[in-house]
Amino acid sequence: MTFVCSLMVSQLPAAEVPAKCTALAQTLQAQKLPLTDQLRKLLKLPPGAPATGGSSPGSASSPGAPTADQAPGGFSTTSDPTLGGILRGPS
Q1: Coil, strand, or helix at residue 8?
Q2: Which residue in 22, 48, 44, 23 sits closest to 35, CA to CA?
Q3: If you ran DSSP here, which 8-state letter would residue 91 be given?
Q4: Which one of 39, 44, 80, 86 is CB 3.0 to 4.6 Å from 25, fit for a cystine?
Q5: H or E, element range at 90
Q6: DSSP structural state of residue 16
């Protein structure tokens, strides 16, 4: 849904973006989850700014959360970030 709403924000005037996209952006921000620049634009936030109350880089993360060099699922993103590398899994 984030992808679809981000596409709509980038292609449509703000008045034509469905209210559900605004609700999604507000929910992601409230949960301190990442927002795309398009969803940030929908909430009138500056692009690339961290969500309010979010953890800063280098701060302790929750147990089991991926580290900076890991994608969700524990796969390393530094070895081979191409589609072939992702499909092969960890080396």
Answers
A1: helix
A2: 48
A3: -
A4: 39
A5: none
A6: G
DSSP 39-86: HHHHTTPPTTPPPTTPPPTTS---TT---TTB-TTS-BSSS--SHHHH
36-63, pLDDT tens digit by residue? 999 999 899 988 755 455 444 444 444 5
* Burial state string for 24-41 with b = 16 or more CB within 10 A and e = fewer than 16: bbeebbeeeeebbebbbb
The helix/strand/coil state of 22 is helix
- What the block records as the tokens of 69 is 């060099």
Please report, in angstroms and rounded to a whole number, the separation of the first and last CA atoms in the chain.
Answer: 31
> Does the pTM exceed 0.85?
no
Longest dimension (CA), the chain: 47
Cα 46 from chain centroid (whole Å): 15
